[in-house]
Design a protein that fits this description.
With about 70 residues, this protein is α+β, with helices and mostly antiparallel strands. The chain has one helix and three strands. It has a single domain (about 15-65), classed as Alpha-Beta Plaits (2-Layer Sandwich). The protein is elongated, with a radius of gyration of 18 Å.
Length: about 70
Amino acid sequence: MGAGCPAPADKVAPMTKWEYSTVPLLVHATKQILDTWGEDGWELVQVVPGPNNPEQLVAYLKRPKA
């Protein structure tokens, strides 16, 4: 099989299903908050300004569904 050819149907890995969470970040405790969520298997995807207050940061996290 050449590069770029699709794998046979019996060799395709199952697609990962994800769950997501949004978490407000407190500037003085950002590392602690992210470390806590990371210990529970959550991966940081992005940090964005909050919708109502741009100075309030919101973290978007994901982890594989159990």
